[in-house]
Amino acid sequence: MRILNQTRNTVLADNAILANTVISGMVGLLKHRSLPDGEGMLITPCRSIHMFFMKFAIDVVFINRKNIVVGLVRNIQPFRISPYFWRASAGIELPPGTIDKTKTQLGDQINY
């Protein structure tokens, strides 16, 4: 799936996969060795992520039910836990640097 920041007219991911079950959400990107530019994972439901046993850093964009950005985590490193975003309903895991490159900000509208 393609994930767009409609507010900034930028592409967050050209090739994102959906993790919408408890198992797929918990496993997430654990099987990956890296996350190439243009790829990502939309995890729903999601209000926080963990980086236990991950092999690389990522950016995470948290969105609410209306697909509005309610949280941003840049370059979260392996073996860390993100803040908990109470208003979030989904998290979009992206390659590090994507938030800054796409100029994504709180309040932006995301479409997928």
Q: Mean pLDDT, rounded to whole units?
A: 93
- Low-pLDDT stretches are none
Q: Can you say what the CATH homologous superfamily is?
A: Protein of unknown function DUF192
CATH topology type: Jelly Rolls
Describe this entry's structure for a reader:
The protein has 112 residues and is mainly β. It has one domain (3-111): Jelly Rolls. The chain is built from two helices and eight strands; from the N terminus they run E-E-E-H-E-E-E-E-H-E. It has helices at 22-27, 98-102, and strands at 3-5, 10-13, 15-19, 39-43, 58-63, 69-76, 90-94, 110-111. Strands 3-4-7-5-6 form a five-stranded mixed beta sheet. The chain has a three-stranded antiparallel beta sheet with strand order 2-1-8. The chain is globular.
Key features?
Jelly Rolls, mainly beta, 112 residues, 5-stranded mixed beta sheet, 10% helix, 8 strands, 3-stranded antiparallel beta sheet, single chain
Quick description:
The protein is mainly beta and 112 residues long. Helix content is 10%, strand content 34%.
